[in-house]
Design goal:
Layout (H helix, E strand, L loop, with lengths): L1 E4 L2 E4 L4 E7 L14 H14 L3 E5 L12 H15 L6 E4 L3 H9 L4 E4 L8 H6 L4 E5 L17 H19 L6 E4 L8 H9 L10 E4 L5 H7 L7 H13 L4 E4 L2 H14 L6
Parallel strand pairs: 3-4, 3-10, 4-5, 5-6, 6-7, 7-8, 8-9, 9-10
Antiparallel strand pairs: 1-2
Helix pairs in contact: 1-2, 2-3, 8-9
This protein binds 6-hydroxymethylpterin-diphosphate.
6-hydroxymethylpterin-diphosphate binds next to strand 3 and strand 7.
């Protein structure tokens, strides 16, 4: 199985690591740590050295309660860093919900668009369709401003699966080939702890779609709930969650702690040699 990702064709025979760089003052996980272009760039390069297979750059926090940033500000945060990284050895993903920025990022060399809104904004599908970039379609109930108020599902796995079916059909109709699509159940995006655990437990169900599954559990609130740890003390729990995700069928894990994840996945991969899983 391969993912077409701009000029890169990534083998998914072993699990891939997407390293997160948030160029924001307010991200829950690392807000303010890499808020300038130079610190963000240095961090991204460090993550590549540590073994990241992709880099995901975000200029807008989607933490619960976040209000969103204006296009101009998001562009100012993201594009200078993307321009520096785009010619490098690993594909660069841009975490945005804004079609205008998607277009600009693709023109500036982005290889993937990671959209927590699953390309539902008017013009989003068209913004990516004609390019060869990969897209990550994430499930969210509500919006970051209100998503954790009262999440509700009859059957969280079935409802996320149904959403993926709808979004994949929309993507195909827009001309996005299946080998460009990644699906993500959106841990913590309009989900209670129980919903998140059920999605993780049954992650393999999403492989029935035929698209690669991405899991983003790193440092999230559910791990804080389970361990009683603050955000900067959740590395061990994040590694456990990434391993469970991979064991249950994730092909890509989105993480902040790349070196630790790489070591954990090296052990996992030795036990589960590269195959067409
Ligand atoms: N989680 C966050 C942001 N973007 N994208 C995908 N595809 N999947 C995720 O689980 C996901 C995501 C939240 O984490 P982070 O980027 O660290 O924080 P913030 O949104 O506050 O910048």
């Amino acid at each position: 199985m391969y993912l077409q990702c701009g000029k890169f064709r990534l083998s998914l025979a072993r699990p891939l690591i997407m390293g997160v760089v948030n160029i924001t003052p307010d991200s829950f996980s690392d807000g303010g740590s890499f808020a300038t272009a130079s610190t963000a760039l240095a961090h991204a390069r460090r993550l590549v050295d540590e073994g990241a297979d992709l880099i995901d750059i975000g200029g807008e926090s989607t933490r619960p309660g976040a209000g969103g940033v204006a296009l101009e500000e998001e562009r100012r945060r993201v594009l200078p860093v993307l321009e520096q990284l785009a010619g490098g050895t690993v594909p660069v993903s841009i975490d945005t919900q804004k079609p205008e920025l998607m277009r600009e990022a693709i023109a500036a060399g982005a290889s993937m668009i990671n959209d927590v809104n699953a390309l539902q904004a008017p013009g989003a599908l068209a913004a990516v369709a004609q390019s060869g970039v990969a897209v990550c379609l994430m499930h969210m109930q509500g919006t970051p401003a209100d998503m954790q108020t009262d999440p509700h599902y009859e059957d969280v796995v079935a409802e996320v699966l149904e959403f993926f079916g709808d979004r994949m059909r929309a993507a195909h109709a827009a001309g996005i080939a299946p080998d460009r699509i990644v699906l993500d159940p959106g841990f913590g995006f309009g989900k209670t702890l129980e919903h998140n655990l059920e999605l993780l437990r049954r992650l393999d169900r999403f492989n029935t779609t035929g698209a690669a599954v991405l899991a983003g559990l790193s440092r999230k609130g559910m791990l804080g709930r389970l361990t009683g740890r603050e955000v900067d003390e959740r590395v061990y729990a994040s590694i456990a969650a990434a391993l469970i995700a991979v064991e249950n069928g994730a092909r890509i894990v989105r993480v902040h702690d790349v070196a630790a994840t790489r070591d954990a996945l090296a052990v996992w991969t030795a036990v589960n040699p590269v195959t067409e899983r």
